[in-house]
Specification:
- The complex is a heterodimer of chains A (283) and B (265).
- Chain A is α/β, with parallel strands linked by helices and 283 residues long.
- Chain A has helices spanning 14-23, 35-38, 41-50, 73-86, 115-132, 154-165, 173-183, 187-193, 231-244, 260-282; strands spanning 9-11, 30-32, 56-59, 90-94, 97-100, 103-109, 137-139, 146-147, 168-172, 199-205, 208-211, 219-222, 249-252.
- Chain A has one domain (9-282): Divalent-metal-dependent TIM barrel enzymes (TIM Barrel, Alpha-Beta Barrel), CATH 3.20.20.150.
- Chain A has ten helices and 13 strands.
- In chain A, helix 7 (173-183) packs across helix 9 and helix 8 (187-193) packs parallel to helix 9.
- Chain B has 265 residues and is of the alpha+beta class.
- In chain B, the strands form two sheets. Chain B has a three-stranded antiparallel β-sheet. In chain B, strands 2-6 form a two-stranded antiparallel ribbon.
- In chain B, 38% of the residues are buried.
- The chains are: A alpha/beta (283), B alpha+beta (265).
- Chains A and B meet through helix 2, helix 3, strand 5, strand 6 and helix 5 of A and helix 1, strand 1 and helix 3 of B.
- Strand 8 of chain A pairs antiparallel with strand 1 (28-29) of chain B.
- Bound molecules: fe (ii) ion.
- Residues 139, 172, 175, 203, 205, 252 of chain A line the site of fe (ii) ion.
C-alpha cells in the first residue's frame, strides 16, 4: 500500500511478525528496521505479504549519515533493493553516527553541531537520497551527551540540513523530552524552533529513568523503547501537533515488548489525542 | 579541537572497549562528570550485542551454562565488533572464539556451536521452487558432466569431527539421559531448513562430498570425481537422483546448448 494514513502506526518487531500476518489487526501503518529483514529472508517474505495490507515505513538504523569515515555504499544498495521490493511510504534514519570505518557500533552516537559535521552529514544525506531514489527523513536523537565544540543548537543544525539537502524530518517527541531532561533545555522551546515545514513523521516511545552516574542524586532518562509512553511525552505531543499540524505518528516499542493488542492500544490513545487536537483546530 | 574523525575514533575506542573513563574524549557536556554518561553508550553496545548472541546460541548455553556463555559473548563483542549493520549476520566467528576458551574442557564445543549457528541461518531461509525429474530429462546426457546446479538457499554441509547432531537432538527433544558420552567420530551433516523449520541429515562421505561440491558451484562431473576420490563405491546417477527427489535443486545451468532439442524454445 502506498498512501499513508493519519491513523497512528506501530513499530513492527520480529517477535510480533507472525501474529501480525495471521491476525492483521487494524493499524494505520507499520514501521520496521530494514536491517532486521535484509539478512532474514523469511521475515522479509512475511513483510512483503503485509505490505499488501498496510503502508510500510522503513526506519534505517545502519546508514550512519554522521560517520566521518563515510557511509557503507553496499548497505545503501541493499536498503535500496529492499525498498524497491516493499515500496515504503517513508524512509528515515537518525541524526547520529554508528559506524567507524568498517566497524559497526550498534548504537546511535552523538554528533557535535559544528560546520564540519554539517558538511559531512549533508554530503551523506545527499548520497543517501540519490542512492535510495527517495526522500530521506532525519530524526532528532535522544541525547545523553553534548560537545563544547558545538557552535549551533540541534534545531539550527537540522534547519540548515534541510536547506542544504531538501531532506525531510522525523520529530521524535519522546527524544525531545529525554534530551531536554538530560541536557537541561526547554522541550517546548525546542518544538517552537524545530523546522515544522519539513516534518513528515512523528515518533513516540517510552523511556526509563535511572541514576545519573555523572551527577549525584540526579536522574538520567534513557531512550529504551521498553515502556509505555510517559505523560510528559503525551503533553509535548499535543503541543507538537498544534505546531506541526496533523502528522503520521508512530509508537516505537523495541524492548520488553508488550502484547500486540497492548501496542495497538497505545496507537489508539495517540489517535484519540490527535483527533482532539484536530477538532480543536477545526473549531 | 579534534576533527570529527578523531572524535569518532576516541568514541569508538571508549564504546567498543567499554573503558569509558580511559578513552573518553575531552570537552563533553552533560551532568557534572559528562564522561561517565559515555557508559550509557558502552552499555547499549555491549548488552544489545550480547543479547543478540544469546538468542542465536541457546543450545550452546544449555551445554556450557548461560552465565559462561554470557561472559564469553561479552568478551567477543569487545574483541570482535560487527563488520556490518545487520545484526542477524553477526556471530559467525563466535563458535571459533568460544572454542578457544573452552576447548580443553569441551573439545566438541566448536562443532556444536557451529552446527547451532548454521541451524539458525537455514531456519530463516526461504525455499525456491525445485526442479523436477522431467526438466532433467531434457538435458543432453553428453553435457551433464559440465552442468552446474543451483541448490536451495537453506542448505549447509558441515564436516564435523564430533557427532554433535546427536547432542543437539537431545537439546531439541529436552531429553536428559542419566549418562551421555560423546565419542569422537567424523560426521557429515546436511543442515536443511526454511521458514522456521530445519532438518539434520547424516550423509555418507561420498554423498556429502558430492552435494557439498555441487553447492560450491562445481559441475556434476567434477563433484562426482571428488566423491569417487573419497568413496570408490559412490554412484553418481543415484546421487543425482537423490538430489532431485529431495527437491534440493532450484536451477540447472548447462549453457545454451544443453538440451536435446536446442532449436526449440
Ligand atoms: Fe524514534
Amino acid at each position: 500500500m502506498t498512501s499513508i494514513s493519519h491513523h497512528p502506526g506501530v513499530g513492527l518487531r520480529l517477535p510480533h511478525l507472525a501474529e501480525m500476518v495471521v491476525t492483521r489487526p487494524t493499524a494505520g501503518w507499520l514501521e520496521v528496521h530494514p536491517e532486521n529483514f535484509l539478512a532474514n529472508p523469511h521475515a522479509a517474505e512475511l513483510l512483503t505479504e503485509l505490505s499488501a495490507h498496510y503502508p510500510i515505513s522503513l526506519h534505517t538504523v545502519g546508514i550512519s549519515v554522521g560517520s566521518a569515515t563515510g557511509i557503507d555504499c553496499l548497505h545503501l544498495k541493499r536498503i535500496r533493493d529492499f525498498a524497491d521490493r516493499i515500496n515504503p511510504i517513508l524512509v528515515s534514519g537518525h541524526l547520529a553516527w554508528s559506524a567507524y570505518k568498517n566497524e559497526y557500533i550498534n548504537d546511535l552516537l552523538p554528533l557535535p553541531y559544528t560546520e564540519e559535521a554539517l558538511r559531512i552529514v549533508s554530503a551523506h544525506v545527499n548520497q543517501v537520497q540519490d542512492g535510495l531514489g527517495r526522500p530521506y527523513l532525519i530524526e532528532n536523537p535522544a541525547s545523553y551527551l553534548g560537545f563544547q565544540s558545538s557552535t549551533m543548537r540541534e534545531t539550527d543544525f537540522l534547519s540548515e540540513l534541510v536547506q542544504r539537502t531538501a531532506c525531510q524530518l522525523l520529530c521524535d517527541v519522546s527524544n525531545v523530552v529525554v534530551s531536554a531532561h538530560n541536557m537541561d533545555f526547554d522541550p517546548y522551546q525546542y518544538i517552537d524552533d524545530f523546522p515544522a515545514g519539513a516534518v513528515r513523521e512523528v515518533h513516540l516511545g517510552g523511556y526509563t529513568p535511572e541514576a545519573d552516574e555523572a551527577t549525584p542524586s540526579a536522574e538520567l532518562w534513557i531512550d529504551t523503547h521498553a515502556a509505555p509512553i510517559a505523560e510528559p511525552s503525551w503533553d509535548l505531543y499535543v503541543y507538537a501537533l498544534r505546531r506541526f499540524g496533523p502528522r503520521p505518528t508512530l509508537i516505537e516499542w523495541d524492548n520488553q515488548l508488550p502484547s500486540l493488542p497492548a501496542l495497538m492500544n497505545e496507537a489508539a490513545y495517540a489517535n484519540k489525542i490527535a483527533l482532539e487536537v484536530g477538532h480543536a483546530f477545526a473549531r | 579541537m579534534p576533527s570529527l574523525a578523531e572524535l569518532q575514533q576516541q568514541f569508538r575506542e571508549a564504546v567498543i572497549t567499554g573503558e569509558v573513563q580511559r578513552a573518553a574524549p575531552a570537552a563533553l557536556i552533560g551532568g557534572h562528570e559528562p564522561s561517565k554518561r559515555l557508559a550509557v553508550h558502552a552499555r547499549n553496545y555491549e548488552t544489545s550485542l550480547v543479547e543478540a548472541l544469546l538468542v542465536k546460541f541457546p543450545a550452546t548455553g544449555w551445554l556450557i551454562g548461560t552465565p559462561f556463555l554470557r561472559e564469553a559473548a561479552r568478551r567477543f563483542v569487545h574483541e570482535h565488533p560487527p563488520q556490518g549493520p545487520c545484526i542477524a549476520e553477526y556471530g559467525a566467528g563466535f563458535p571459533n572464539f568460544l572454542s578457544n576458551l573452552v576447548r580443553a574442557r569441551l573439545p566438541y564445543i566448536r562443532d556444536f556451536s557451529e552446527l547451532e549457528w548454521h541451524v539458525g541461518q537455514v531456519a530463516i531461509a526461504v525455499n525456491s521452487p525445485s526442479v523436477n525429474a522431467g526438466e532433467f530429462s531434457t538435458i543432453d546426457a553428453a553435457r551433464l558432466p559440465d552442468t552446474t546446479l543451483k541448490l536451495q538457499p537453506g542448505l549447509r554441509y558441515l564436516d564435523l569431527e564430533w557427532p554433535v547432531d546427536d547432542l543437539l537432538k537431545l537439546y531439541l527433544t529436552e531429553t536428559v539421559p542419566d549418562q551421555f558420552e560423546l565419542t569422537r567420530a567424523r560426521a557429515w551433516i546436511e543442515v536443511r531448513g526454511a521458514r522456521g523449520e530445519f532438518h539434520l541429515n547424516r550423509l555418507d562421505r561420498g554423498e556429502f562430498t558430492f552435494r557439498k561440491s555441487i553447492s560450491h558451484g562445481r559441475s556434476i562431473g567434477d563433484a562426482a570425481e571428488h566423491a569417487l576420490d573419497v568413496n570408490s563405491k559412490f554412484d553418481p546417477g543415484q546421487a543425482l537422483a537423490g538430489l532431485i527427489a529431495a527437491g534440493l535443486i532450484t536451477a540447472i545451468n548447462c549453457g545454451r546448448l544443453c538440451t536435446k532439442n536446442p532449436g526449440r524454445s
